[in-house]
Amino acid sequence: MEILIISGLSGAGKSKAASYLEDMGFYIVDNMPAAMILKFAEFCAGGNGRYDRVALVYDVRTANSFTDLFEVLEKLKTMEGRCRLLFLEADEPTVIKRYKETRRRHPLRGAVNSLEEAVRREREMMEPVRQRADFVIDTSSTSTGQLRGELLQLFGGEEQEKGGMAVSVVSFGFKYGLPMEADLVFDVRFMPNPFYIDELRHKTGLDAPVRDYVFSFHQTQDYLTRLKDLMAFSLPLYAEEGKTTLTVAVGCTGGHHRSVAVAHEMAEFIRQQGYTVAETHRDLERES
Questions:
Q1: Which end of the chain is less enclosed by CB atoms within 10 A, N or C?
Q2: CB 51 within 8 A of CB 44
Q3: CB–CB of 84/136 below 8 Å?
Q4: pLDDT below 50 — which residues of the chain?
Q5: What domains does the chain contain, in order, with CATH numbers?
Q6: Integer Cα distance of 136 and 14 in angstroms
Q7: Reduced to 3 states, what is the DSSP secondary structure of residue 274?
Q8: Among candidates 165, 181, 162, which has minimal Cα distance to 273?
Q9: What's the pLDDT tens digit per position in 226-275?
């Protein structure tokens, strides 16, 4: 069993981090007092694997004394599995700016005279927790995508490979419109069209005779080489930026021949690069 305690400053991104960790397979519990954490961990340990990865959000709202939290952490580290503490922070101007933009109330605002004082007071209060943290992430200049990328690096497990990004490759016919979900669109209508070959017209780009015809031309081969180079260069950058899904669309006139053959080849190449790939031929069943 893996238990992750998420703590840190208000406005530093704990809720966003929790949502990303939930996507990675963690069971999330927000605002849990230290006194309940140990009991909850014991409950999870008896859950027959249902709660193998748990993330508990703990912050200044639930802190009467951090001594309780530290005692719980020591006990958890003696249990089977592992327990780690993640602390998120941001500099004072960033936290103040975020609160002004969201118009939320800082949890310490009622005890002090200003937002600035509340932010400073919380930083002082949470310093002992920061000192005990296994990981500290400063989100002052971190985009949401970068935060997700850091969390994947630290806690992604199997999803860490290729940044957890899934790629969808779609073939389509331009005469039926662009796929609404497409991130990248490639037009292969310049390639020789098997539609005008009688014995190929009623076949598709998934049939060997059509594929052989499409790839028998040097312009197809050259284009595919450049397209693979572009994918090999671009996909790691999308994953690093924090993108979870990427849709690559390949279009020809009707979506039966050229786009299908090229999309299938691209899907195989991307799969070989280590990404999870879904291959779809949107217009293959339409009448040509």
A1: C
A2: yes
A3: no
A4: none
A5: 2-161 (3.40.50.300), 165-281 (no CATH)
A6: 12
A7: coil
A8: 162
A9: 999 999 999 988 887 778 789 999 999 999 999 999 999 999 999 999 89
